Amino acid sequence: MYKTILISGAILFGGLYLSCASGTAKNADAPPAKQPPVVTSPDKPHPDIPPVIMPQEQTNEARQAATSKAIETLMSLKLPELYTKYVDLKTMEIMDYNTMVSKLKGIQVVYVAEAHTNEAHHKLQGDILKSLSQKNPKTAMAMEFLYRSKQESIDNYTADKITEEEFDKTNTFGFGEWYHYYLALVRYAHDNKIKLIGMNVEKDIKRKMANMGWDKLTPEEQKLIAKDVDTSNEKHKEFVMKQFSGMMSNPQTRDMMKGPMIDKMYLMQCMWDETFAESIANYLKAANDPAVQVVVVAGSGHIEYKFNIPDRSYKRFPAPFKTLVPFEVDENTPAAYLKEELSSGAGDFGYFSPLSPRGDNLELPFGRK
User: Fold this and answer.
1) pLDDT computed for residue 64 by the predictor
2) In the chain, N or C: fewer CB atoms in 10 Å?
3) How confident is the model at residue 159 (pLDDT cuts 50, 70, 90)?
4) Distance CA 344, CA 194 (A)
5) What is the pLDDT of residue 291?
């Protein structure tokens, strides 16, 4: 395989989907959730969050040796066996699903990154939700797919106050044309009375805030989007700018990709991540229970490197978290690709999947399977 994507997942802006690029930061287990958040900034991050380490900064010889050994082992596996393996991206330990899940015990927030159109990613999200919720009835799921503005309808659906048909009619969705990719997750939550948390915010509200400021939003709109938006993290900005490179070179969009427009697009991306982060933190604050676990289902561009949703949510409410990120591989995947991905440390755990559909292979119709 050649590297078809640098990050699975997409950033949506003005109806355009942009591939997301890859990276990581290590995460130490956070202090107990009941402790008040620490006031932080990108220059003075929370003391329990190590700084973001970009791939080129990782020079530890022991880590390089462990990575080489892991690559050798992984390359010896045939498909689909590789799709059953997980890697601890700190220690390079290769493990099976049950071992990986056992490491999530006591972790309050579990981020499972996705490419929106990859069924294998959604299956893993469902498996993790099932594994955690069967052991912990206080498990919830937060979804990029669902909007904060529709939380009442979401709650009514999981409480059997409205039917699935009524739920569909009263909701708009983050990527409606791909509804069927998320249907099994939503139904499992409904059937097992698992709390669903809408994280997304309508583009019109983001655009209004970007153009006019938070104070110009109506009181109802202010409830749906984060007020405090940090745009000063240079590594995050570099990460996001790489996603805009395609639009900058595209003849149809390159003329608008200049100065103020770039800044506004980055601001809106940060608004998005901050709102997702606030949604998770608000739920944890309201629950005020360290036994609560939240499985977060969102695109990889919102999770990898951790300076998007995870760190921003942790700054609001310091609950222990881990991230799982996908590596898409097939029978042609070269060792160089695995070395690059594993060395970059895209999260706490890496998982392997088939390639996401692209172009003519992308299944688009709205509906159910």
Assistant:
1) 85
2) C
3) very high
4) 34
5) 97
| Residue burial 86-117, b: 16+ Cβ < 10 Å; e: rest | bbbbbebebbeeeebbeebeebbbbbbbbbbb
Residues 6+ apart with CB under 8 A from 238: none
Domain 7-361 has CATH 3.20.20.70: no
82 or 39, which is more confident = 82
- Rg (C-alpha) for the chain, rounded Å, is 20
Distance CA 299, CA 11 (A): 8
What interhelical angle do 259-287 and 234-243 show, nearest 10?
120
Q: What backbone phi and psi angles, to 5 degrees, belong to 174?
A: -55, -35
Cα separation of 154 and 170, whole Å? 9
Q: How far is CA 205 from CA 150, 216, 224, in A?
A: 14, 10, 8
pTM above 0.85, yes or no: no
Which pLDDT belongs to residue 40? Answer: 37
Task: For residue 80, give both structure tokens.
Answer: 């689909």
The rounded Cα 316 to chain-centroid distance in angstroms is 17
Q: Look at residue 299 and give its three-state secondary structure.
A: strand
E strands within the chain?
Answer: 7-13, 16-20, 86-88, 94-95, 109-114, 139-147, 195-200, 293-299, 321-328, 349-353
